[in-house]
Specification:
Elements (H helix, E strand, L loop, with lengths): L2 E3 L5 E3 L9 H20 L4 H8 L3 H29 L1 H20 L4 H29 L3 H32 L4 H4 L1 H15 L12 H24 L4 H23 L15 H28 L5 H7 L1 H12 L5 H4 L1 H18 L9 H18 L3 H6 L7 H26 L5 H25 L2
Antiparallel strand pairs: 1-2
Subcellular location: Cell membrane
Membrane topology: Multi-pass membrane protein
Organism: Kitasatospora saccharophila
Length: about 450
């Protein structure tokens, strides 16, 4: 059956507990993770303002972005497993409240060091909230079609947050200051928490031990690997910090592999990679975020450093990009129910690659025709892909492992974004047009690789 008649004569999906699930339940979850993802992209356009107020090196500026991204990526796998173990709704609420507190600390930061530390706490909270949000949705809907529609909404909202971030961040920075980017999270987060307690049903639990050794190895591997890229770009490959991080990365990788072999319940079980489509979903997620988030990061810095735009005008410049992304996410991506995942994802990846390729002629002087055409194609292609990525990962694992599937996908996505920021930041020093072109060339290659993986492995 899977559907029940609502009070207004329309059908409402039935949850796994047998009760009808209203739109308020889905909306309360979406509001929380929209805030978390919005926060990640909104700060990009405020980096010059941070530099003006606090000073700081290039590496410090990058760490205001990457402390959040790396901490989130390091905790997503453990967060997914924890969501299955303690209940996705409970983890979502606890993580949301921690995120609100960390946001207030970011807004009150007296210097770069305090801001970076508070951003890391935000990332830890987001590492629990993101996989819990998708697991909550997976567990709320018993009927496959209703669940697929909810996943599309989740993916569309997450894509929307990525593109609204620069516009909202630019407007808030210009009108109030960069601290407003964090202060606005407080009322939004509290509203989401209250609505979730009221509307979202209690999630089931899966009593399995946590792989603390594997989680620690994951955090070390992600932190050292991305940290090495950031320090290498800022201080060079021969700097002591870079050498230390490069040496620690393979050690952490060996620790992760060893933990997976000895733990009875590893944070990322090796057998999951033998399930059809799971490894491909993770690869596509990482490459997608590398291109979408990395391209946005590079273009945002170029608009301000090379073209001389302030934060507000740089945010406005992203409006056509955001509009095309939103159109693709909320309108065109619905075609997945008719065409299937593979054609939609492949078309999106190829369109995004064409968009980043079209942006290559951009130089030190503004060229709005090239920028608008290329960014619209990039937004259109990325928007087509975003809503369908969760479905690829979640359908590869059993429903009771939805937390693991969600955590794994989001971890690989965030790692892809962090690697892009670590690689692209040093290339954009001095407002060099060739640096932007190198970044966009890598984005193009990334989306072409996505196209190849999709055509080869996704069904």
């Amino acid at each position: 059956m899977g559907e029940a008649i609502g009070t207004a004569g329309r059908t409402a999906p039935i949850g796994r507990d047998g009760r009808a699930v209203g739109g308020a339940a889905l909306g309360s979850v979406c509001l929380g993770f929209f805030m978390v993802l919005l926060d990640g992209s909104a700060l990009n356009v405020a980096l010059p303002s941070l530099s003006s107020e606090f000073g700081g090196s290039l590496a410090q500026l990058e760490w205001t972005v990457n402390a959040y991204t790396v901490a989130m990526a390091a905790c997503l796998l453990g967060g997914g497993a924890l969501a299955d173990r303690v209940g996705a709704r409970r983890l979502f609420l606890v993580s949301l409240l921690f995120f609100v507190g960390a946001s207030a600390a970011c807004a009150a930061s007296p210097g770069m060091g305090a801001l970076i530390a508070a951003r890391a706490v935000q990332g830890v909270a987001a590492g629990g909230l993101l996989p819990a949000s998708l697991a909550v949705i997976a567990q709320m809907y018993a009927e496959p079609a209703a669940r697929a529609r909810a996943f599309t909404v989740w993916g569309g909202i997450s894509s929307l947050a990525l593109v609204v971030g620069p516009v909202a961040g630019g407007a808030l920075t210009a009108a109030v200051g960069w601290r407003a980017i964090f202060l606005i999270n407080v009322p939004i987060g509290l509203l989401s928490a209250l609505a979730c307690r009221r509307w979202v049903p209690v999630s089931p639990v899966r009593r399995t031990p946590l792989d603390l050794l594997g989680q620690s190895a994951t955090a070390a591997l992600v932190g050292c690997g991305v940290g090495a890229l950031i320090e290498a770009g800022a201080a060079g490959w021969t700097a002591p910090a870079t050498i230390a991080l490069c040496a620690a990365t393979p050690v952490a990788a060996l620790g992760f592999v060893a933990a997976a072999r000895v733990s009875p319940h590893p944070v990322l079980p090796p057998e999951t990679f033998r399930r059809p489509g799971f490894a491909a979903a993770l690869a596509v997620g990482a490459l997608y975020q590398f291109g979408a988030y990395g391209g946005q990061f590079a273009i945002s810095l170029h608009l301000q450093r090379s073209w001389g735009l302030d934060a507000f005008r740089a945010g406005l410049a992203f409006v056509p990009f955001a509009a095309c992304w939103s159109l693709a996410s909320f309108v065109l991506a619905r075609a997945v129910h008719r065409t299937g995942l593979r054609p939609l994802l492949a078309t999106g990846a190829a369109t995004a690659a064409a968009g980043s390729l079209a942006l290559l002629p951009l130089g030190a002087t503004p060229d709005w025709l090239v920028f608008t055409a290329g960014s619209c194609l990039l937004g259109l292609g990325a928007g087509l892909m975003g809503p369908s990525l969760p479905t690829v990962a979640l359908r590869a694992l059993p429903a009771e492992r939805s937390g693991l599937a969600s955590g794994s996908l989001n971890a690989f996505r965030q790692i892809g974004g962090a690697v892009a920021v670590g690689l692209f930041g040093p290339m954009l020093v001095g407002a060099r047009a060739d640096g932007l072109r190198t970044c966009l060339g890598l984005v193009t290659v990334g989306f072409l690789a996505v196209t190849w993986v999709i055509l080869r492995s996704v069904r």
